[in-house]
Amino acid sequence: MSRVPLRVLIADDERMVRTALRVILDAEPDMEVVGEAASGAEAVGLVRSLAPDVMLMDVRMPEIDGIRATEQILATMAEPPRIVVVTTFENDAYVYDALRAGASGFLLKRAGADELTGAVRLVARGDSLLFPAAVRALAAAHTAAAAAPVWASRLTEREADVLRLMASGLSNHEISEHLGVGTQTVKTHVAGVLAKTGSRDRTQAVIAAYEGGFIMRKG
After folding, report:
1. Is the Cβ–Cβ distance between 19 and 37 less than 8 Å?
2. Residue 161, pLDDT score
3. Residue 125: which of 44, 199, 205, 187 has the closest Cα?
4. Closest CA to 31 of 1, 2, 6, 52
């Protein structure tokens, strides 16, 4: 469970970007920027020592980029932070690689203050930060054209519904309202989806759904 205030670590090779993000986040009563990193390598070291709840990770950095840094953090930490990759263009192939590596979502650098702070709160509570149209476009090159993935037949009807709604960018609360069930019930279905798709989190489950052609066939 996330602490209050939410501890945020910023990783970006541009000082002005880091400063702008810090000013916005530190102005929020429920957030605290605990550190800044100017490279992926520095980010990996700081995340281990500072234990942030959420990390804003520039996708393109020298030496170790945001993708490799994300992979290292998630592979070596028992309780890694939620990682949001920050990019200039939503159709950046690097973004898709970062999502596949385990990032909880992505945010455009031109996003406003409300979008930024909302994104931090969203991923901190376990939801994904996805832009369905962008993810669908990025996934197109990886989508299977043949048989459905094995896991698709293992999903219950309600789990399949939940996965499609997850891919539409809905949060657990929004899914519960859409289906007319409790949030805890949605969480149970999400857990089933993650287990059956072999995903670390809901973002990876959505990626698996697109790559396996599940969304396009069933949606």
Report:
1. no
2. 95
3. 187
4. 6
What's at 162, amino acid-wise?
Answer: V
Question: Residue 96 and residue 144: Cα distance in Å, rounded?
Answer: 16
Which residues have C-beta within 8 Å of that of residue 106, sequence separation ≥ 6?
59, 84, 85, 86, 87, 90, 95, 98, 99, 129, 130, 131
CB within 8 A of 171, min separation 6: which ones?
Answer: 122, 127
Q: Token pair of 24, please?
A: 């916005």
Q: Which residues of 116-134 are buried (b: 16+ CB within 10 A; e: fewer)?
A: bbebbbbbbebbbbbbeeb
Pick the closest to residue 123 from 23, 11, 17, 203 (CA basis). Answer: 203
pTM score, whole prediction: 0.79
pLDDT in tens, 185-212: 999 999 999 999 998 888 888 888 888 8
Q: Check if the beta carbon of residue 9 is closer than 8 Å to that of residue 20.
A: no
